[in-house]
Amino acid sequence: MPRRNRDRRARATPAPPAPTGGWQQLETAQDGDWLVRRVTGTQTTKQYRCPGCDHEIRPGTAHVVVWPADETGGVADRRHWHESCWNARHRRRPTTRRR
After folding, report:
1. What is the rounded CA–CA span in Å between residue 37 and residue 80?
2. CB 59 within 8 A of CB 45
3. What is the C-alpha separation between 61 and 27, in angstroms, rounded?
4. Which of 41, 47, 40 is nearest to 60 (CA)?
5. What is the pTM of this model?
6. Contact of 73 with 66, CB cutoff 8 Å
7. Spacing of C-alpha 93 from chain mean position
8. For residues 43 and 49, what is the distance between their CA atoms, to the nearest angstrom?
9. Which residue ranges make up each domain of the chain?
10. What is the CB neighbour count within 10 angstroms for residue 2?
11. Which residues of 7-34 are buried (b: 16+ CB within 10 A; e: fewer)?
12. CA–CA distance, 80 with 34 (Å, rounded to integer)
C-alpha cells in the first residue's frame, strides 16, 4: 500500500490578503496586521538579510518587504524576507542573528 506523505493535521488557511490600493497588501495573521510588498528581482540592487532564516537575500532575488500595518516606525520597521520564510514564520522558531 502506498504511503501518504502529507500532513494530516488540520491546517488553518489564512484569509486572502486585502488590497490596500497601493503596491502593498494588508495581511492579517496571528502576529498582527502587516503590509506586504512583493519585490521582483529586477528591482533590487542591495543585499539584505532575511530575519526568518538569517541567510542573505542577494541583489536580483525576488522577495517580500514587510512592515507593521500601523506604520508607527516608518522605514526603520521594514524587513526584507524570502517569500517562503515569510509564509512559514508561524511554523518555525526564531533564528538567532549572526554577528
Report:
1. 10
2. yes
3. 22
4. 41
5. 0.68
6. no
7. 14
8. 16
9. 20-87
10. 4
11. eeeeeeeeeeeeeeeeebbebeeeeeeb
12. 13
Q: Which three cell numbers stand for residue 39?
A: 519585490
Pairwise CA distance, residues 83 & 75, whole Å: 19
Taking only the tens of pLDDT, the chain with its 99 residues reads 667 676 666 555 555 544 444 578 899 888 889 999 999 888 788 999 999 999 999 999 999 999 998 867 677 889 999 999 999 988 876 666 666
Sequence letter at residue 90: H
Long-range contact list for 45-52, CB < 8 A, 24+ apart?
A: 48/80, 49/80, 49/97, 49/98, 50/80, 50/81, 50/82, 50/85, 51/79, 51/81, 51/85, 51/95, 51/97, 52/81, 52/82, 52/85, 52/86, 52/88, 52/89, 52/92, 52/95
